[in-house]
Amino acid sequence: MSSSRLNIRVLVDFDGTIVPGDVTDHVLGTFADPSWLELEKAWQSGKMNSRDCMAAQVDLIRATPSDIARAVSERDIDPAFPEFVARCKAHGMEVTVVSDGFDLAIETTLKRAGLDLPYFANSLEWLGGDRWKLGFPNSSDDCTKRAGHCKCQRLADGATRTVVIGDGRSDFCVAAKSDLVLSKSSLTNHCVSQGLRHIAISGFADVVRTFDSWTVEALMAPRRQSLPRRAIPHAGLDLSKRQSHLH
Prior knowledge:
The chain has 247 residues and is α/β, with parallel strands linked by helices. The chain has 2 domains: 8-22 and 77-123 and 138-226, Rossmann fold, CATH 3.40.50.1000; 25-73, no CATH class. It has a 7-stranded mixed β-sheet, with helices on both faces. The longest helix is centred in the N-terminal third of the chain and has 10 residues, at 50-59. The chain has 10 helices and 7 strands.
C-alpha cells in the first residue's frame, strides 16, 4: 500500500484495548468500596446505564491524587500500539481515543508512552482530600444507552470511513454504526451475534501485521447502512478465540 492519505478515521477504545489491563477497574478495585462490583454487575446485565453506574462507583473511591497517579502507572499500553499509531499517521489516518473511562488515566498513560493523540472520555474530578466525582462532558441527551461518553458522536461524516477498535460493552453502539470493527473479547461476541462486519484480533500486533488488508477492507466495504450481516474471516486471525471480559 502506498503512503497516500487513507480516507479512514480510527476510533480506539482505551480500557482493555490500548491498555490490555483495564485501568478503570484497577483504580476502582484498589481504592473503591467493594460494593462497586455490585454496580458493575448491574451495568453488565443491562439493569443500569454506564453513566449512573460509573458516577456511583467513583463516589465510592477514597484516594489522593498521588494514589490515583500511582495506580494508573501500574498499567502499561499494548507494546504494539505506538507502531500502530505511527503507521496510521504515515497514511494520514485520524486516530482518536474514545473511552467511557477516566480522562486522567488516558492523559497520564499516553504522555508516559510519548503519544500525542486526541481523546474523549469522562472527567475524573478531584474534590479535595480523598474524594472524587465523575463529570460527563461527552454525554448526549440523544444517547439511547445513556452512556457516560456517547462514542457515536465521534463517527466520521461524508466520504470518510470509520473503523472502531474495541473490546466491550461501551463499544457496542458505535460498532453498529461503523464501517468495520476490529474486535476483542466481548465485542467480538457481540459482533457475531448481531452480524456486524468485524475482524477479531488479540491485540495491536495483529492490527499492525494485517494493516494493508484491513484498511483495504474498510475502504471497499459498502456504507454501513447496507452492510451484509456477516463476519469477515481473516487469514491468521482466529475468530474462535474469544474471552468474556465486559469492559
